[in-house]
Amino acid sequence: MIDVDFSSLRRAAERKDQEILPGGGRRAYLSALDRGVTADPGLACGIVIRRGTPILNVVQVGAARRMVEVGCDHLDGCWRYVWADSGEVIAPVGDVAGVVRVLARELAAGRGRR
Hints:
Helices cover 35% and strands 34% of the residues. By secondary structure, the protein is of the alpha+beta class.
């Protein structure tokens, strides 16, 4: 019997589908978050491509060895910012300021990967 993880296959298919949605959603929303993060003097960030998908790396100024990575996925009919490593939803894309606060709080608490 072959054990297949259908949830990972579904997520991969959703990501591929998202890349062809009109308006370049993922990249545009990550760019908006990039602008929101750079407005916070305590944070720095940059968009990178990981496995063919853009994500936003965010660091706390003065502690650049620790970072969080944010993705953007089209889930249940709307775009949402998600933690890139887990896919867990942070907030809808319309709440850039709220996401920036969450990122700042997580980094200030010492969370994030090294």
